[in-house]
Amino acid sequence: MATSSFSRGCFVFKPSAKKKKKTSVDLEGYFTDGCEGAESSKTRFKLCLDLWNKIKTETEDLQDELNRNILDSLLEFTRKCSSTRRHGDWASQMRASEIPTAALVLGVNVPDHDMTFQSLSELLRCSVTPHVASLQAKECGALKHLMKRVLERLMDAVVDDEEEDEEEEIQHSGALLHKSVHCSLRALCDWYCSKTKKSSCSSSGKKRSSSAVDEQQQLPVVIIFKDLEAFNPKVLQDFILICSRYLDRLPLMFIFGIATSPSIVQRMLPHSVSSLLCLELFQSLSCTQHLTTVIDKLILTHSFPFKLNGKVMQVLVSIFLYHDFSVRNFIKGLQLALLEHFHSQPLSSLCCRKKEAQIQLQQLGAADLERIRQLPSFNRFLKEQEQQEQDNLRTDDAYLKEVCQKLLKGLHKYHKNYYPILRCLHTLTSSLPRYPLGKQVRELHLICLEKNVWESEDYQSAMKLLKMLAKDELISLLQKCAEVLQPVKSKKMKNALVQLEELLDKLKQLNAAAELASSVEENLTSPVKNLQKKTDLFQLQKTLLEMNESRRSKRMSPFEVLRNEAVEFVDGLVKSHLSPPESKPLYEVCYYSSSATVRRHLNATPRTSIQAALSSPYCYIQNDSLKSEDGSVSNAAPDICIAHKLHLECGRLINLFDWLEAYSTVVSAAEGNGPDSDGFGKVDEVKHARFIRAVSEMEFLGFIKATKKKTDHVARLTWGGC
C-alpha cells in the first residue's frame, strides 16, 4: 500500500547472527586497495598479519601472567570461604548474616578490566564453582533489572519481571517457548536446591565419599560487580539486604571491581549495609607497571622486527599517561602503527627476521630497488662511499642487492646489541639520585632514539655520579649488568661480558683498599667539618680552593682507578651501540615514523572532522561536481553544507527568514534555474522542508541554538576554525 509520508511506520531490522567479523579479510582489502603490485601487497599483508597475531598472543599471555597472583589469591579466598561453610564452623568465623566479599582494586584503566574479569570468571567456573554471574552497572539501572540479570546468568532461563497478574496471563495464554521464572531470590534458592539434590543423587549412585558429596552440595554462588562505582547505591543497598536474608539457604559470595579506592564501599553503603559484608581487600598490579612490562616484551626486544621511532612512541605513551591509562588501548595504537607501516611503506616486506629478509630482498623488482635508492638513509650512506662505489650502487641492481643484504644484516646486529646495552645503562643510572636519564627504561629509550645520548648534559652528570659510587654499590650494579648480558649470543656482547667479569674480579680482590678508603675519607671529611664552623665568606672560598688543590695533587687509590676504568668501559659501550637508529642505512624498512597519523586516529577531534566535512564535502563524498576553489562550497553540495556555509557569513544572531531566502537562492541555482526565471529564489514546500531539516541537523551538531531574545532568530555557537 502506497503512503504519502515515510513517518507512518517504524521498521526494525535485526542483524543476521551468521555475520562474523573477519579481520584478516578486512585487512587484506585494506592492503590491496590502491597498491601497485599485487604480489608485494600480499607478502606485506602476510607479514603484517603474522606480527598482528604475535602481538595479540603475547599480550594475552602477558596479561594472564601479570594477573596470575591476584587471580590465584581470589581463587584461594573463594575456596577458603566455601570450605569454611562446608565444615560447619561458619558461624564461629563469621556471623550468619555476613556475605564473603572480595574488594578487587584494579585501578582507573577501565578498558583493561574486561580481560581480567573474563579470566577470573573462567577460572572460577573451572576450579571452584559453575555458578558465576558477572554484572555491569549499565544493565542494572533498577533492582528488578539487577535481579533479572543475576537469575538469567545463573539459571540460564527466561525471567519475568512483570506484575503477577500479567505473569499469570502469560503463563495461561498458551504453550511458551521457554519456561519463565519469577524474578526473586526465592526462585534462585529453589533452583539451587534442585541442583544440589541432583548432584547428590548422581554422586550417591556412583558411591562417592561423603566429603565429596558435601563438597558438591555446597558450591558457592559468586556474583561479580565489574564496575562498582557506576552502580546505583540505592539499588546495591537493597540487593545486599535481600541477599543477606537468604544466606542460610544460598552460599552467596560477592566480588567488587573497584577502579578508584576501597573507601568507595563505605561511601556508597551505609554502616547498616556494609556491616553485612565480610570484606577482604585485593590489590592488582598498577597499570604503569603493566605498561612497562608490555614495552619490555614487545618493543624493547630484537626478536620483534617492527619498531617505532621516538615521536610515535611518545604519542602512544602520552595518550596512555594523560588520557585513559589503558594498556589495551596502547596495544591498539601499536597495532594501528603496524598496519599503517606495512600499508604505506612498500619496502616493509623486508621488515622480518634476518633469513626471511634475505629471501624477500632477492625477490624485489626494479621499482622496489629504485625506492631503496630514494631512501634518505641510503642516500646518506651513498655519499660516504667513493665515486666508483656510488656509480655501481646506482646502476647495478645485483650489486645493490648484495650491499643491501649486508646493510640489513648490520641493522639486525645493531638491534641485537642495542637493547642489552640500553638495559645496562638503565640499570646503572636508575639507582642514581633524581634519575638523570629517567626512572623507566622507556624514558631512556626515547632519549636514545632522538639523539646521541652521550652528548646530553644529563648523561655527563650521570657519569660523574657513577664515579662517586662506593665499592659495594658499584659491584652490585656491575653484577646486574653482567646478568643482562649473560643470555645475549652476540659476539660483541660476549666480549663485553668477559671484560666486565674481569673488572668485577679485580674489584673483589681489593681487600686492602678498604683501609685506604677509610683514611682518605677521614682526610676528606675533616675539612668539611671545619667548613660547618666557619661563616666568613672569604675563609669559605679559601678552604674550598685548598680542598680542590689537595684533591688534584692527591694520588688516586686502586679502587678509584678501577672505578674510573669501569665507568669508561660502560661509556665506550654506550658510544659504540646506542647511536640513534636514524643513523643506520635502511632504517625506514623497520621503523614507523608518522606520528601525525597515529595521533589523528587515536586522538580524534570530532569538531574538526565535522567542520572539515561541512566545509569540504568533496573530501568525503568524492564527487567531481563538489570540487570548488578558494574555500567556497558548490551549490550542488548537500543541504547542510550549504546552510553551514551561509551561517558562517552571519553574526551572533541569525535571522531565519533571511537564511531561508539565501538558501533558496543557492538551491535554485543548483537546479539550473537562471536569475531571470520566474521561480528563481522562491521558497516552495520542498525547499522549506529541506531547509528545516538542515537547520535541525546543525542544531543537533551544536552549531546553533534557539534564543529567547528574538523568536525568529537563532544564536550562533561556533566561531573561527579549530
Radius of gyration: 36 Å
List the uncertain runs. Answer: 1-14, 16-25, 90-94, 163-178, 201-216, 524-529
Q: Sketch the major β-sheet.
A: 5 strands, parallel
Order of strands across the main sheet? 2-5-6-1-7
Tell me how many strands there are: 12
Gross morphology = globular
| Number of structural domains | 3
- Which assembly state applies to the chains in this document? single chain
Mean pLDDT: 81
Structural class by helix and strand composition: alpha/beta
Number of helices: 33
What's this, in brief?
It comes from Xiphophorus maculatus (Southern platyfish). The protein is an alpha/beta fold and 722 residues long.
Defining key terms:
722 residues; alpha/beta; Rossmann fold; 3 domains; five-stranded parallel β-sheet; three-stranded antiparallel β-sheet; 33 helices; 60% helix; disordered N terminus
